[in-house]
Amino acid sequence: MRLAERGEQCPQTTIIEPRESYDHDRTWCFWGTPSAQLSALVRHRWNRVQVMADGHRLEVDCTATPYEMIPASVFYATALKAISQNHRLRFCGGTSFDGEPVRRGDRWEISTTQGMLRPRWIVDTRPLRPPQRDDALLWQSFCGLEIHCETECFNPECATLMDFLPTTDQRIMFLYVLPTSTRQALVELTVFAPDPLGPDMLQPILMQVLAERLKIAPPQVIRAESGSLPMGLSSIRNRPHPDWIRAGLPGGGARPASGFAFQRIQRWADQCAGLLTQGLRPCAPRTDPWRLRAMDDLFLRVLRRHPEAAPDLFLRLFALRDFAAMVRFLSDCPSWTDCRRIICALPPGLFLGELGKTLLSTNNFRS
């Protein structure tokens, strides 16, 4: 999309896509900050969000930065239209690689099912392998159903970001509910766990929760979506060559502690397209500032070691008096004051204990 907007300045680019077509297979959400991009594609906004756990319910007014949703179908249609209108972009759907790229001089040779390509640069968003336990500190696995109910079951003015279920098998589980009308909503079962979990395991639990917790049975299912997002990548994001850039989730496209990716990817696309239109090498996604990396890493380590503490931790965070600080933190642009407020909202014992274990482990490894 960003290259398409640059008209004749766009370098000749080929897009290799194994999919034959794009379906409504996911939903992107983000906070409507002043810097948020593609707001014209937003199809629903919530001015209030809530978090629930152990009989406690916390509702927050976020009118200044509403929680916003872009359906994949809307984004895909917009992107494909823009790409089709720039003759310097060639979109190859239903195409796959025959082997991996090979370096020949200052070019790559890429054998595909539609012939040989010899590009100068590669921007690679493919997953390196199926999700595995040791590839991330935690995995955020989800299984969602967009459902329609015969009765009015939802409040379309308020999104449920977390409705925690009992912790089992070291897994943090909660419902994520995005109502778009009084009778229709996307309801997702989300799990934070060391292992990635597939829809075959999660969907039966979701159906049971819909029946027992929300008293919805059986719902009319409009569509389904599922996935596993890495929370705290290991070293799998290393680039194979300076002219071969990893992007997307393998390149750090998602925020480790939250899984938010859409606006991060938009910012990277702006920067990368700008370099390419100047004839410069594309860039990988920008690394988060060290304070964010350190805070995310410690938070994820605490969640992994103490999953039973997750409901209390998130309730504390969403109870911040200055909720704008929380939004800035989740949107990758916190100030030092925002970071201090986040730290002060959390119980020090858990985090100091985990920090000590991490430092001790690091020192033992070095010795």
Summarize the structure.
With 367 residues, the chain is α+β, with helices and mostly antiparallel strands. The protein is built from eight helices and 17 strands.
Describe, in plain words, how this protein is organized in 3D.
This protein is an alpha+beta fold and 367 residues long. The protein has three domains: 4-44 and 65-130 and 235-277, FAD/NAD(P)-binding domain (3-Layer(bba) Sandwich); 133-232, D-Amino Acid Oxidase, subunit A, domain 2 (D-Amino Acid Oxidase, Chain A, domain 2), CATH 3.30.9.10; 290-359, no CATH class. It is built from eight helices and 17 strands. The chain has helices spanning 72-84, 199-212, 262-277, 290-305, 310-318, 323-330, 336-345, 348-366; strands spanning 13-17, 27-31, 44-46, 48-53, 56-61, 67-71, 89-93, 102-104, 107-112, 115-117, 122-124, 136-148, 158-164, 172-179, 184-193, 220-233, 244-246. The strands form five sheets. A seven-stranded mixed beta sheet has the order 5-4-13-14-15-12-16, sandwiched between helices. It has a three-stranded antiparallel beta sheet with strand order 2-6-3. Strands 8-9-10 form a three-stranded antiparallel beta sheet, with no helix packed on it. β9 and β10 form a beta hairpin. α4 packs across α8 (348-366) and α6 crosses α7. The model has no long low-confidence stretch (mean pLDDT 92).
